[in-house]
Amino acid sequence: MFKGKKRNSARPGDLSEHDDGRGTAITLTLAVILLYIILAVILQFFGTSKKYIEAEKLDDLLTVDIIHEDQTTTSYSGNIFSPPLETDNVYVHVPLPKSRRVSSAMLCFSYYNANIQVFASDNKLIYSSNSAERLATNLTGHMMIKASIPNYCWGNFVNIRIDPLEDKTISTINGVYVVNSSQSAWYPVLLNGQFTLVLVLFFFLTSLLLLSLLIVLQLKGNKVGDGIMLMLFSIGGSIWALCYTGLMYMCSGNSRLCAFGEYYVSYLIMPVLTGYFCLQHVKPRTKLFLRIFTAVLVAFAAAVYTGEIIKSPFNVISSVPVFRILLIIVLISCAAVLINMKNKRDASGRVQVIGFIIIFILVILEIIRNAAVSSAGEGIYKAHFIAEINLIMPICIVFVSTLMISYMSRFMRARQLEQENATLQNLAKYDALTGIPNRLYITQAIHEIEKNNINEYAIFFMDANNLKKANDEYGHECGDKLLKLVGRALKEASDGQAGFYGRYGGDEFVACLYDISAADRVEKRFYEIISEANDEASLPFPVSVAIGKVIHKASDISTPEEALKMADNLMYKNKIAMKGSAR
């Protein structure tokens, strides 16, 4: 049967002004927090990777000497030390007590953006990061170092030399472990914990699945471009997190590749994020600013990548200060957009408020922590819990979670509104009594015939006889039963045919078939159903229906409205003839 076109009157972001969404916002937020807690508990309950990997952590045994440019030395105990200058040389002494011996051992640790050399107790070089490939780019990022330990070093020590490069950001040598070489691939999990790995993979896979679903919806005509941009941002953020934490080393031991993933992806996800906010309901001036700023970010990323390819001085490392400034502008712009968005009182808006309050608190704590570490003396480095805590990942997780929960809340609400609007539209086009299409539906379908250039069709105009008699003598319930019977007969007779049918008004019904060869067959089946109802004595009087039929061929010049009117006139003549024969 002919179906009217469904109109999408809602899209993500078009929300009711009267839905404050407080309960939904709290429920969604608590649900995500509960999910994170469940993941952490499950991983803890079933044991961490440390139980299954032969490894020993040596952070507490380290001693660190920083030799300054003036040849003075500052010494520290443990893995935390004052941020070195680019002109400093850092020497880390790693004791290897026999009580902590691991078979086929490898010394594993992580550092950020430096050249690393590892020497055995006899000063033999056992590892060097100064490969020609790495020195050509000066790009190292988060490094996972794995150096094989000679057996004779047990009971002695190994020395690590660190030469900081540009853009130094770390003053700790993280997670110094001795790991069995056959299990060393799992070192990034030892360093970060299973929860971090599972959480990042959860974000990545969930975003990938949602991206696929949103692309399908977009291809079907739904306006979900903002959702696609958000999922691309989440996927990019997940890849960045894998590289930033060093978990990417589980897939590839190429430090240059991992560094590229850390830096390059961070340059790409910024314009994707601003592009997402461009598609939100914001003021025209704000939208114009976001579009221009997005174009600036794309141009900046292209310039950096081009500089990296042609070995220009303006490359990834040298552009980091500019990147940080742009990142601050991006975050301020996103916060301003969220504050000025119209949907503050619905569930989506409240999720944003809750999320950004948490982010604000975490950012303040991270600023305080960095300030304390940078300004304090040697004593601060003995407070490991201050120097080792890194709130960047929690901030990123809360930020992405806030955006995704907020969007999904708006998306689900918009889909609900679409369904409600579709239901209302259907109700407006269907007759409440008979359940078949009404006059509005028929009128629109008549216009569609001409619009779609359908030249051959058969139109029936029907009138149920004796409706007034049924109402007056047997009550309106009987009249309703008569109309329902005719509607059911029309529906069953037309079933499977291309075209449309419906109640035109009162006791009048209309049907249209696009296959004119089926007209006689449908008419015959209609009368058979009416006859069967009379045989069963469904009503206290015989049911009869007057029909006017017009066959419109391709050579005819009449319009569908004129054909309908002709069928109406023929029905009226048939009705008079039926009354005359009944006397």
Provide structural commentary.
The chain has helices spanning 22-45, 132-137, 187-192, 194-219, 225-244, 255-278, 284-309, 320-340, 347-375, 384-388, 392-429, 439-451, 467-474, 476-494, 519-535, 560-582, and strands at 55-57, 63-67, 73-77, 89-95, 105-112, 114-119, 125-128, 142-148, 157-164, 174-180, 457-464, 499-505, 508-513, 545-552. A six-stranded antiparallel β-sheet has the order 3-2-4-9-6-7, with no helix packed on it. A four-stranded antiparallel β-sheet has the order 1-10-5-8. The protein has a four-stranded antiparallel β-sheet with strand order 12-13-11-14, sandwiched between helices. It starts with 21 loop residues before the first helix and ends with a helix. It is elongated. The chain is of the alpha+beta class. The protein is built from 16 helices and 14 strands.
* Count of DSSP-assigned helices: 16
Our estimate of the beta-strand percent is 15-25%
What is the alpha-carbon Rg in Å? 37 Å
Mean pLDDT: 78
What is the rounded distance between the termini?
Answer: 39 Å
Total strands: the figure is 14
Helix and strand pattern: HEEEEEEEHEEEHHHHHHHHHHEHHEEHEH
Spatial strand order of the main sheet = 3-2-4-9-6-7
General form: elongated
Largest sheet: 6 strands, antiparallel
- Supply the helix-strand structural class: alpha+beta
Unreliable runs, pLDDT <50, ≥5 residues? 1-21, 132-136
Please give the share of residues in helix.
40-55%
